Amino acid sequence: MLRAQLLTSKAKISNVLYRGKQVASDAAYVTKRLLKSTGNAAWIAGTTFLILVVPLIIQMDREQQMNELELQQASLLGAPPVSPSK
Description:
Elements: H1 2-76
Main location: mitochondrion
Subcellular location: Mitochondrion outer membrane
Membrane topology: Single-pass membrane protein
């Protein structure tokens, strides 16, 4: 009878350990997939930023420089100073 209880006890512990390993494995898999998805999302966001936003920033800077140049040329030619539009 004692031997049967020991075997039952070991079987329960073995089942608990197996379930614990399975949960840990599942958690590792989910974490790995989450990190991969996060990396993909970061790559997409970065690429989109480079393709869409950086050229816009460059163009806005060029336009601002052109406006400042026009104001400077107008002041050199004696035109009344005009405040830059914002």
